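CORE FACILITY INTAKE
Project code: CF-77B
Contact: R.S. (postdoc)
Sample description: multi-component assembly, three entities in total
Requested service: structural model of the whole complex
Turnaround: standard
Below are the sequence entries exactly as provided by the requester. Do not edit them.
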Amino acid sequence: MNTLTRRLAAFPLVLLGVSSLVFMAIRLVPGDAITAMLGTEAGLLTPAQKQALAAYFGLDRPWIVQYGRWLWALLHGDLGISVTYGKPVLGVILARFPLTLELAVLSLLIALAIGVPAGVYAATRAEKGADLAVRVGAMIGQSTPSFVFGLLLIYLLSAGFGVLPAMGTFAPLWVDPLANLGQMILPALTLGAAFAASLTRIARSAMLDVLSEDYVRTARARGVPARQVIWRHALPNALIPVVTLSGIEFGYLLGGAVIVEQIYALPGLGRMVLDAILQRDYALVQGTVLFIAFNFMLVNLLVDLAYYGLDPRIRGRG
Amino acid sequence: MAFLRAIFRHPSGRIGAAIVLAYLALAGLGALGLTPHDPLVQHRLDRLHPPSATYWLGTDLFGRDITSRLMQGIGQSFRVAFLSVAVAAGIGTVLGLAAAWFGRIWDGALMRAMDILLAFPAILLAMLIVAVMGPGTQTSVLAIAFVYMPIFTRVVRGPALSLKTRNFVDAARSFGSSTVYILTRHLLLNIVAPLTVQVTLALAWALLTEAGLSFLGLGTQPPAPSLGVMLSDSRNLMETAPWLMIAPGLTIMGGILGFNLLGDALRDILDPKTRGRA
Amino acid sequence: MTRHLNGLSSLALAALLVAPALAPAQAATLKMAWSQDATGLDPQKQTAFSSIRLLELIYEPLVRLDAKLNVVPAIAKSWEFSADGLSLTFHLDPKAAFSDGAPVTSADVKASFQRLLDEKTGAAARSNYTSIAAIDTPDAQTVVFRLSQPDVPILAALAGVNAAVLPAAAIADGSVGTKAIGSGPFMLASWDPNAREVLTANPHWAGGKTGVDEIDISVLPDETGILAALRAGQIDLALLNDPLVATLVPKEQGLTLVRTPSISYNVLQLNPARKPMTELKVRQAISCAIDRKAVLDTAALGEGQVTGPITVPAYATDPAKLFCYTPDLAKAKALMKDAGYPDGFSATVIAATGEPATAEAEAQVMQAELKQIGIKLDIKMMELNVYVDAWLKGDFDMAVALNGGRPDPYTMYNRYFTKTGNLLKVSNYTDDTLDSLLNEARVTTDPAKRKDLFAQFDTHLAEVSPWIWLFTPYTYVAERANVQGFVPTPTGSLYGLSAVTLK
């Protein structure tokens, strides 16, 4: 597979690009680990103290030297030490990643299970009552900010019924599956609802497109049953935009869902990277962004491979 | 003119256009200062006043009239949403077409550059832009545009890649059409459907993201209202004064409904394959 | 064990939701939540309030402050100043021991202060202890601080976890920031930053047995989430910052809100180095135009108390007696005219997003008020660190701030308003009166005389108005009915948790 090897070869280059961009960006934003730790008290430091802390946080060298050292360590599989956690960055990331992965998968499943059938159904009933109902439903799902949806859910459950998924104390899937799903179901629904809404719209639109194609019309004219036309002939071709969007959204979700993690107090990657940025934990920000980028590209690679699988015409040319 | 007539003939286009026009009218009145109250004046004695004859949609923590703030907020939010989506769609589409058309190394380079942007945490990006430009409207616009641009690129590139291989492009090429002509005429026309849907999605998304940015103090600066700011400011008052969340929440929903319906209609009208069907 | 669910109990979803609550409950575990976590474990280096309140449960200083801000014994059971005020002797509690069982000795105290004073440590609090010239340890239970000059405020300054006593062994092997071995009521069993920490009772604590065996703290970043978790009975005790959320607690059955007036203060810092805030009359006009009570009532729902510069009750002046604490628009306009700005001017005010929760609202109320005398304020909200960076550089026209209070006004304001203050480039204001009053109070031992000096300082500072002091906020602790015996302090210390029991 020529394309695959080419894409894989590009991986290190993209990661290098991401790393240098993040490296610069986080340092261009005012404030550093010292002000993050001390706040306004940082003003009480003597020059010698400042120097000592800068050395402690590794901020005392020119950027280029810091970057060089970081890259060199990276080549040896070392992402550095997080100053907030006092632990190697990779370990910190891997401890948080399972939750994020699980949340992303659950949301994707929810979104696909709702979005694709709803979109296809709406397309086959274009401009009729059912279509309108689906579209309005999708619109509501799409236009409700996740923090509003989440806060309302939490409020209704806690004030109305006195129950709530456990907040803060997170039970990993392999330790306590029931408790874990109890905690994940609301966040997954919150994310999945908005995701499903976008998928519905994309699926509907793509389906409408395909249904008007010659080969679909031909199939219909030939007397192929409507159901078969839709699911066998039309849907596979309508899936390209659906797969594109799912890939992008899934890739995003693998980077963590900041607001949802915040509201449901889930210790995922999104909150971690936000906290790392706010605390100017440079090594952790760099490592996490690199990790997120890697996952993102992997998902995209799979999406592109899916194109080739889905659309024989691309395959023919490739 | 025929185009406008087509929109109004289209069932969902009619509703969508009506909503968007109504919002634009409200925003216009807001911009002209024709609001029931001054949206910035704090009525100290009427703080957190529920909806009433004087304050149709109630007042906020400062005793400012929600109706008036909504009218101005629509204008601010639309400005941010339109500008950012225009920037994102414009650049994103050009890059996506370029990637699909030129293929090979161009495709690889462009898409990997987009990967870099996509993998970049949006918050960090926004903070960086703020650090360079200071907080405010342009910052929101740029931050939202940069986050969404790679999505346009991918959305355009996918179908373009598949269309490029079809016979009619080959046919056009064999007739000696210029590259630019083929790109604009055929490819662009054929990706207009996914693109318009994506634009309406993006507008909806931009309206919401503006709220997220204001959480971090990176969006519209107080006391100017925007729908997102009003919504995010209402979160800790959700129980005390629910009208603070309901009014901007429903306004955002209505606006997004309008965009989406209009977008669907545009898609039907502009798409050559479905033209004349609806 | 099963919870009743208003007829929903049969639903699978409900079963899933309740499942986590069925985990075996340990009777003596206090479940807590807060929205901001500690940023590190080194008690001498951490200055953020979110870190201090955790570390105060693990480490102990020589002395601590009680609920009335009196200095009371901690590791030291007694202490005395020499007659010349040049030495301060502490007698250690022989029972004091670190959580690993080792007794706290004068050698530990000496090593701790040497570390604190060593510039290589990078402890910002060092500036409070620079008068310590030498430390003698005549025996294992006695420590004598030799001072370079009389320093009355140093005693109160020692009553903070930044002056915690660390094991000399931990200092020697460099494990202070990682292992967290202290002599406080609890020990750190686990810490997952920004997510969760578990504290267990320190069996060697000199104070005896703690009321609970374990404290399980969750970091719930959203305060409405904390309220929901309290309602659902998932947590027993929580810290809240936002008055908008805290004021909902008393409306809830089974929940109590403990409000404590804090000694920190919300303030509008003017920058007297920038025109036209260089003009005394302009600053005074701003002071007269701002209705402090209105700022408090609107931005913080009235949750707090209007304050002058000095916030500690023992030294504070009645705000009504301070310059222009009754708003006077006519006077403000006249002052503006006299200063040469009859039509006002434009300026930018910076504020940190969510820090404090009321900052943005305060800025908006003051913006509306200053508009009345022609001052056009632009509000710039900033992420906290960006704000701190600008603040430290003095790069602002005006800044909305929540500054920490100290039990002794000298320690609190020396940094800003004496001629040698290390934050002079932030305050950009000092004069002979402020400088001499503070320096005199530093060496004065007579309490009545100190009180008088601080009253003069308070009145003068409010009159020259480099800053516009607004109000002291409340610190909030929300607790369920099963929590008993929590005593809060004006410094926001959670040391009172050592006595808390669960019913």
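Facility notes:
- Chain B touches chain A through 57 residues (CB under 8 Å).
- The first helix of chain B runs from residue 2 to 9.
Invoice: internal transfer
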